[in-house]
Specification:
The chain is an all-alpha fold and 341 residues long. Helices cover 68% and strands 0% of the residues. The protein has 13 helices and no strands. Belongs to the mitochondrial carrier (TC 2.A.29) family. It is a multi-pass membrane protein. Mitochondrial iron transporter that specifically mediates iron uptake in developing erythroid cells, thereby playing an essential role in heme biosynthesis.
């Protein structure tokens, strides 16, 4: 009885040459055949692990970025660079201070990235079939990344608000739950989504550029789409750096909306809470001019390059590992079925 190899090996991104039917063999090419055959759970598992590691490994730099984006920082929280900022925070506030807010970030990053990668892979595949007849399509990559971002940010936005409030200098909150309860009590549930439209406005172009850059780099460095850790790391780092630099102005506005920086708002005679992307843009410009939109850009790029490289390399590894496990199991289950027939 002959096994239909089309069930095991299919094309994902790049057209492959026709080959005669043969028994399934575990190879790097099978790794890229994952989406048509493997459950969404596989993408979600790989995405969740990648997301948690992405946010965890570089978290101290993210804390520095939040502080450097402050429009009117405390004199004790004015930093010349990322390294100097980390050194001073540890010396004056303790070794664990740069990690404050990491717990809520991990709680949000797991499910957010699980949805993100699962949606991206499925939608990219479907759109590529329509646009390029199964071939790689930059338009499909960009659209899939943008739609996946809407789901990701819906989960991640409340965690971002709590995280950034806890990262700020002289943060008044005792801990995670105190921060959540205080925001809910004093500002209402809407505070957790006050920056959602700005976050989407930033992240949709960020992810579109990110995915297009990543896939473009993969075409050059890894044209056969094999499992190649070096190409995944380099492509991820380049995609992260370019996307981060381009979208920094929107990130500054998002930080202002999330933190509701009291000193800055009081100096502008803004009572209550600042809301809306347009108001955030006006406030940033009035307080610091055009240069204010690029506050923290160095920290943002330094954070995003390794973070994105980590996310892609971990995701691609887990995708490869889980594919290999499934492909090894399929011939065994088939043999077991034949022996019982």
């Amino acid at each position: 009885m002959e096994v239909n190899s089309d069930r095991v090996v299919a094309t994902l991104d790049m057209p492959q040459a026709d080959s005669p039917a043969e028994e399934p063999v575990i190879s790097d090419k099978d790794y890229e055949s994952l989406p048509p055959h493997v459950s969404v759970t596989t993408h979600m598992t790989a995405g969740a692990v990648a997301g948690i590691l992405e946010h965890t490994v570089m978290y101290p730099v993210d804390s520095v970025k939040t502080r450097m984006q402050s429009l009117q920082p405390d004199p004790n929280a004015q930093y010349r660079g990322v390294y100097e900022a980390l050194k001073r925070i540890i010396q004056t506030e303790g070794l664990s201070r740069p990690l404050r807010g990491l717990n809520i970030t991990m709680m949000g990053a797991g499910p957010a990235h699980a949805l993100y990668f699962a949606c991206y892979e499925r939608l990219k595949r479907s759109l590529s079939d329509v646009i390029q007849n199964g071939g790689n399509s930059h338009l499909a990559n960009g659209v899939a990344g943008s739609v996946a971002t809407v789901l990701h940010d819906a989960v991640m936005n409340p965690a971002e608000v709590v995280k950034q409030r806890m990262q700020m200098y002289n943060s008044p909150y005792r801990g995670l739950w105190d921060c959540v309860q205080t925001i809910t009590r004093t500002e209402g549930m809407g505070a957790f989504y006050r920056s959602y439209s700005t976050q989407l406005t930033m992240n949709i172009p960020f992810q579109a550029v990110h995915f297009i850059t990543y896939e473009l780099m993969q075409e050059q460095l890894n044209p056969h789409r094999n499992y190649n850790p070096t190409s995944h790391i380099v492509s991820g780092a380049a995609a992260g750096a370019i996307s981060a630099a381009i979208t920094t102005p929107l990130d500054v506005c998002k930080t202002l909306l999330n933190t509701q920086e009291n000193v800055a708002l009081n100096s502008m005679n803004i009572s209550g809470h600042l809301s809306g992307m347009a108001n955030a843009f006006r406030t940033v410009y009035r307080l610091g001019g055009a240069a204010a939109f690029f506050k923290g850009v160095q920290a943002r790029v330094i954070y995003q390059m390794p973070s994105t490289a980590i996310a892609w390399s971990v995701y691609e590894f887990f995708k490869y590992f889980l594919t290999k496990q499934q492909l090894e199991a399929e011939p065994q289950s088939f043999s077991h079925k034949v022996s019982h027939d």
